[in-house]
Design brief:
With about 525 residues, this protein is of the alpha/beta class. The protein folds into three domains: about 35-290 and about 465-490, Rossmann fold; about 300-460, Rossmann fold (3-Layer(aba) Sandwich), CATH 3.40.50.2000; about 495-525. About 50% of the residues lie in helices and about 10% in strands. It has 18 helices and 13 strands. The protein has helices at about 1-25, 45-55, 90-105, 110-140, 145-150, 165-175, 215-245, 255-260, 300-305, 325-340, 365-370, 385-395, 405-415, 430-440, 445-460, 465-480, 495, 500-535; strands at about 35-40, 60-65, 80-85, 155-160, 180, 265, 280-285, 310-315, 340-345, 360, 375-380, 400, 420. A seven-stranded parallel sheet has the order 3-2-1-4-5-6-7, sandwiched between helices. β12 (about 400), α13 and β13 form a beta-alpha-beta unit. The radius of gyration is 28 Å and the shape is globular. It starts with a helix and ends with a helix. The structure holds 2-acetamido-2-deoxy-beta-D-glucopyranose (2 copies). One 2-acetamido-2-deoxy-beta-D-glucopyranose binds near residues 356 and 357. It is found in: Membrane. It catalyses: glucuronate acceptor + UDP-alpha-D-glucuronate = acceptor beta-D-glucuronoside + UDP + H(+).
Length: about 525
């Protein structure tokens, strides 16, 4: 009886959502809107492009602002028109050079000096990237013809990734509504600038902490928060403030620009991330890029099937890095050669001499389709957001070798839930890699926990991509979503924390106490003096 009631109500709910979904799919795509897109290069572009594909399929027309020497953003595409902005320096060399130096320093160990060196390296690289983008902004603002064509194009909104504040500055200038495709902003986690983020249980980007922190860990968290504030105030903010002062009426700064955004499409969800306070204009689209696996190409499929019962290991370290240092690559190749599994390894550097004949090196792999293949047992990855979320979607446990930025923190979220294991770059060698790989392969808990995350992640009323597109079109239909923004962003800090109220109340309280005291003092003294006089 209970069973049928439950299944009836479950059916009711699923009916409701199908109707909702149908209504969504039938909603006219607002007669084809016009969207101006600014995205970062590399992996950020990969997921922005998927969103563009979807918007294009729904009849919207899209213009993409791209650096003329872009690394990944194609100039000619059937999906969009390009607006090319000359760029002073190529990112590819800059980022790869930085990563090589960064990896070298990481391998020196884990002392405070190493940490300091890493921080300095990172800050100088990131500051240079922002300054290149700010030069590009200045070029746009100095080009009256381009500015005119941008304003005459009558875009409905700007869709942008705010890790670089380029898009929000442009949106401010063109007075357009903004939708963010976001995880990180110029400094730190996107939430930190709009939602309450107590440092007591919200680990700061880069801290490598979880939401359960001891007293000393909370001190460390505060230190990393200080670092983020330092980075924003002294290294990154000034580049944009210079642009704002010169070209934007009334000036602007990165925080107010970000806080004015209409909708935050957040590339995260609470299956992956630790629970935290959020805001009405934040929409979680974690895993929006994930799709059911497509069949592999015949030769790859044959290779994967040839693994038999042992299955397949796949490895990639992302779009930014061509290869690890040679000695690590050799160690990894030797471990792979010993395994009974077949291995597919995306690697573009020198071919290791110890490569086994079970290992196939490729310069590109269909990562989603391989992750979705039932033969795939372990994903060896650097922990970029895209890869981690695809692994969750397909339920494949991860052996992580984080390289930089958010990668350690991403992998930590899997490790905390028993769905992955981290080996720090400084610790990668033949033995640690072999041990880690065998542990993730043979301890069933890794795969069970990851499959549980996968089931939780997939249990959503609407697929995250449809959710994202709905909100982009919502902003078009209503010309923004200002009604979802809190008042917080217009307040000075002392009002936000009610310091002014506390000061006023304590002043009033003290005045009242003092006044009462003086009155009593006067009354009782007068009483005493009059008594004294009587005698
Ligand atoms: C938090 O960490 C402490 C110390 O490591 C541990 O004893 C406690 O069980 C943890 N709490 C939760 C909720 O995981
Ligand atoms: C390579 O493959 C062959 C079979 O094709 C096998 O006999 C041989 O042991 C393999 N070599 C190594 C080093 O695994």
């Amino acid at each position: 009886m209970m069973g049928t009631m439950e299944s009836n109500s479950a059916r009711g709910i699923s009916m409701f959502f199908s109707v909702f979904l149908m209504a969504f799919l039938i909603t006219p795509p607002c007669n084809g809107g016009k969207i101006l897109v600014f995205s970062l290069d590399g992996s950020h572009w990969i997921n922005m492009k998927l969103m563009i594909e979807e918007l294009h399929a729904r009849g919207h027309s899209i213009s993409v602002i791209r650096p003329s020497k872009s690394w990944y953003i194609e100039e000619v595409s059937p999906l969009y028109d390009s607006i090319n902005i000359p760029q002073s320096k190529q990112f590819e060399g800059l980022i790869q050079g930085f990563l090589e130096r960064y990896i070298k320093v990481q391998r020196e160990g884990s002392s405070s000096l190493t940490l300091l060196k890493l921080i300095v390296q990172f800050l100088s690289m990131i500051s240079e990237v922002h300054s290149i983008y700010c030069d590009m902004l200045a070029q746009i603002f100095d080009d009256p013809r381009l500015l005119q064509s941008l304003s005459e194009a009558q875009y409905d909104l700007v869709l942008t990734d705010p890790s670089i504040a380029f898009g929000v500055v442009l949106a401010k200038y063109l007075k357009l509504p903004t939708v963010l495709n976001v995880r990180w902003i110029t400094s730190g986690d996107g939430h930190s600038i709009i939602a309450p983020s107590p440092l007591s249980y919200i680990p700061v980007l880069g801290s490598g902490l979880t939401d359960n922190m001891s007293f000393t860990e909370r001190i460390k968290n505060l230190f990393f928060h200080g670092l983020i504030v330092f980075q924003e105030v002294f290294m990154i903010g000034p580049h944009y403030e210079a642009i704002c002062d010169k070209y934007i009426e009334g000036g602007c700064d990165t925080s107010s620009l970000l806080q004015e955004a209409d909708i935050w499409l957040f590339r995260s969800d609470f299956v992956f991330d630790f629970p935290r306070p959020t805001m009405p204009n934040v929409v979680y689209i974690g895993g929006f890029q994930c799709k059911p696996a497509q069949p592999l190409q015949a030769d790859l499929e044959a290779f994967v099937e040839s693994a038999g019962e042992h299955g397949v290991i796949i490895m990639t370290l992302g779009t930014f890095l061509s290869g690890l240092p040679d000695d690590i690559t050799e160690d990894i190749a030797r471990v792979f050669a010993k395994m009974p599994q077949k291995v597919i390894w995306r690697h573009t550097g020198k071919i290791p001499s110890s490569l086994g004949n079970n290992t196939q090196i490729v310069d590109w792999m269909p990562q989603k389709d391989l992750l979705g293949h039932p033969q795939t047992k372990v994903f060896v990855a650097h922990g970029g957001t895209n890869g981690v979320q695809e692994a969750i979607y397909h339920g494949v446990p991860v052996l992580g070798i984080p390289l930089f930025y958010d990668q350690f923190d991403n992998l930590l979220r899997l490790q905390e839930r028993g769905a992955g294991k981290i080996i720090r770059l400084a610790d990668v060698n033949f033995h640690s890699f072999e041990q880690g790989l065998k542990e993730v392969l043979h301890q069933d808990s890794y795969s069970h926990n990851m499959q549980r995350l996968s089931v939780l992640h997939r249990d959503q009323p609407i697929p995250p991509m449809d959710h994202a597109i709905f909100w982009v079109e919502y902003v078009m239909r209503h010309k923004g979503a200002a009604h979802l923004r809190t008042q917080a962003y217009k307040m000075p800090w002392y009002s936000y924390y009610s310091i002014d109220v506390l000061v006023a109340l304590s002043a009033a309280g003290s005045f009242f106490l003092l006044a009462t005291f003086i009155v009593f003092r006067l009354l009782c003294c007068r009483g005493r003096t009059s008594k004294v006089k009587k005698h």
